[in-house]
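pls design
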């Protein structure tokens, strides 16, 4: 991604300006990943689970299930995106509608990297309510981002927290 320009100093220098870096991610990106999802609240569908326990006393909780995901995001270059997702959980497809969200990209001068955040809204059966997931990422190259899923919530409460990470790559092959 290259170095960020340094701010001019001294008499008559202009104040440093915050650059808008969101256009750097414009385009279509794809990732696939597997992860372990905490099934809390428990899903009513019969999904094979690994038991989970909560201390103290090791009270049984919802457990974990395996999930794999294929995710395609089209960043608009202005901080928003739309996308498509296909999730396989417990060996069965979980159909998903179009997802939407926002993203930001910021330089971290102390570490010399470009990092950012993706906030995705996954639709539920209630059109007025989305599952909101947050991903932190670091740009590895102009067309490659390493990400980590950091949080998921439904109506303000933690929802099916997932242990997942992956690589988003910009699509360079177009029909």
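designed seq:
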């Amino acid at each position: 991604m290259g170095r960020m320009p340094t701010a001019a100093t001294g008499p008559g220098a202009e104040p440093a300006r915050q650059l808008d870096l969101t256009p750097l991610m414009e385009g279509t990106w794809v990732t696939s990943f597997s992860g372990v999802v905490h099934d809390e609240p428990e899903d009513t569908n019969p999904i094979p689970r690994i038991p989970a326990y909560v201390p103290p006393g090791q009270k049984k909780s919802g457990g974990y299930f395996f999930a794999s995901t294929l995710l395609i995001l089209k960043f608009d270059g202005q901080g928003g995106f739309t996308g498509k997702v296909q999730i396989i959980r417990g060996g069965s497809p979980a159909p998903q509608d179009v997802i939407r969200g926002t993203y930001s990209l910021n330089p971290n001068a102390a570490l010399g990297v470009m990092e950012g955040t993706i906030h995705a809204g996954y639709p539920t059966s209630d059109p007025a309510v989305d599952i909101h997931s947050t991903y932190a990422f670091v740009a590895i190259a102009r067309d490659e981002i390493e990400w980590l899923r950091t949080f998921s919530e439904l109506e303000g409460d933690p929802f099916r927290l997932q242990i997942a990470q992956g690589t988003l790559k910009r699509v360079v092959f177009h029909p």
